[in-house]
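Q: What would this chain look like folded?
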Amino acid sequence: MKRDYQTHVFTSTYTADVSGVCSALYELGGMSVLHDPSGCNSTYSTHDEPRWFDTDSLMYVSGLDEITAVMGDDAVLIRDVVAAARDLNPRFITLCGASIPHIIAFDFRGVAYLIERECGIPVLPVPTDGLKSYVSGVGLALTAWLERFADPAEFAAAPDNAVNLVGVTPLDFSINDNVRMLRAAFADAGFAVNCCMAMGDSFETMTHAFRARVNVVVSSAGRRAARWMKKQCGIPMVEGLPIGAAQTDALLGAVRATLSDGKDRAAWGEFGNTGRYTVPEGGILVIGEEVFAKSLANAINLLPAERRSGLTACPLWPDVDEGMPEEELIAAMRTARTVIADPLYRVVLRPRDGVQFIPFPHEAYSGRIFRAELPAFAGPDFSVEQLLSGR
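A: My prediction, written as structure tokens:
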């Protein structure tokens, strides 16, 4: 009997795929069109996108109404997008959609072709359905953009020390100092950061994405794009985040090894296997996006003073997008000694469970509610010891 992994009674859900698309391409000079009545667009603009206040971007919703959906009248959308594109002249147009276009079998590729033929501006069809997580949306968007605008032939001329940081959006890294510290961790180690996909990068910089020797996947949202780039020209990938000094050394060591032998790696030791984890009673449970959670778990396990068992429960499984069954997650949390997770997970724990809860906000889960409490965790200066002590 197939279990329903999409039913949540106590826990919330992660940001949807449509927000992932808009977030990934926000800074690249395009126009993103969300085909939807309006709800998903307002959710993105009010909860998922912190850059609204200081960075302009062209974000639009089609305003799909009932009669247009029932009649399948795509001419309305085509006319409106073409008119807006002629007024605004964006570098490209992205067409994504929520659940209603999915239900009526909206033809993303066909409509994108018709819009591009009318206005002469490149149109990227990104067939989201509003039912998957942001991991899927970011991956689809970055891959579609690279396929259209980046040249795999440039890999042959990539500098020997050049790397890309793939999967960088505010949904995982927010707008505090994390992205700057992430870049600095590699620059200080002698690497040249070619692209940071896609925060702080321009359209022109991103077109040279293949001028790197290794793709460092710093969020599972970047995995699809990195795999596609590997398929195009053989560029290898390393998965991991620099969190604290020991984990930073582990990640940088993995990148150097991959530069030498061209093999894919994951910089999290014994946490590199896939599947769900069983938490031994009294263990440490890290909940969150996969690359972050496994990297933090490995950072805990690398503490020199005391070897601690950091085990990962990742409710966001990007390859299947079904999530961890809520009952399994709750059982794991209640048997752990310590839980590290977004503050919204705290509701699961009861006083009698006697579990230490360490809040670690995740913007893709709780939005802007706890943004001020999110630490700058990227790089060697982050103290894992202080995190575990609750300070």
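The chain has a mean pLDDT of 88.
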